[in-house]
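Our working data are protein records whose layout never changes between entries. Instead of coordinates, the fold is spelled out as a row of discrete tokens. Here is such a record, shown just as it appears in the course material:
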Amino acid sequence: MTLDNKLGLTDSLELSKMEEKISKTRAKELFEKQLLDDKATGTYATLAVIHGFLFKEIYDFADQIRTVNLAKGNVRFAPVICI
């Protein structure tokens, strides 16, 4: 099962590969263009900007507060109650 995504991918492995490729490219861009230089470190607002920038091409929910618990493989993300 995969998360709903803008790429229309339904294969978990293929989605994972594309997510890695796109997010790494976007992360490089974040630093090369110094897009975080004017952002406060460690704030929710900055984390939302980063998440949105990395994943907006893949997921509609990028930069949104998660409302459901998620896991990827054997890794469970922080429970919603802790966010």
About this structure: The chain has two helices and two strands. The radius of gyration is 14 Å. Strands lie at 71-72, 75-76.
